[in-house]
Amino acid sequence: MTAISAQPYDYEIPEHGKMALVIIDMQRDFLEPGGFGDALGNNVQLLQAIVPTIKELLETWRSLSLPIIHTIECHKPDLSDCPPSKLNRSKEGLKIGDIGPMGRILIYGEAGNNIIPELEPKEGEIVILKPGKGAFTRTDLEAILQERGITHLVITGVTTEVCVQTTMREANDRGYECLLVEDGTESYFPEFKQATIAMLWAQGGIIGWTSAAKSVISAMSVG
Ligand code: C5J
Question: Which residues pair with 113 in a beta bridge?
Fold first, then answer.
């Protein structure tokens, strides 16, 4: 069996079709200049730097006809799926549902809520609309994975310590074998990214594995 060189040890690639690429929340409002993240004073260039890497992984998965999952953090226009505990937390005054630079913040269908054009999903790829930080919370993701026999998740996206880490922990608890691509994920706070990576594979891979995109792609090409 082919394996990906990873931390804390090699990650075995399962049989064809069982390993999905997961791309978390690569949305315009988080990544683009003039978006919500930018308006809050975050350096969105940090997040933009991972786009070519994720694109390369996406092309690899597409060329091998392997399952691809995109997620979008979003809410219904009436906010009925947004608990007060999430709605009321905002440091800068702008809240979910308010008008931001690219439409209502985190509302499905608004311009800023869309996935960036470079990584736009193609027909047949799975798109999970998630109201929480984790992609399993109040979504059909687990049922979809079970139906398709997917057991392994190669995870990318933003932000490392929030939606990416939460999703990986949720997946790990459900029995999925997860690998985070280190240069395929980013945070507005580099120290949070590094801390997340270190804690995921501590204690013999307590949450899973991490690896570089080039190691993933070269193992996929061989396998
Ligand atoms: C994500 C967030 N996608 N940081 N959202 O991480 O609120």
Answer: none
Q: Write out the two tokens for 119.
A: 């990584």
In testing the pocket of ligand 1, which one of 75, 133, 170 has its CB within 8 Å of the most ligand atoms?
133
| Rounded Cα distance, 134 and 163, in Å | 6
Residue 56 burial (C-beta neighbours within 10 Å; 0-12, 13-18, 19+): middle
Active site residue 130: yes
Q: Can 178 be counted among the known catalytic residues?
A: no
Q: Ligand 1 centre from 28 Cα, in Å?
A: 12
Helix (H) or strand (E) holding 12, with range, is: strand 11-12
Which pLDDT band holds residue 94 (cuts at 50, 70, 90)? confident
Mean pLDDT rounded to a whole number for the chain: 95
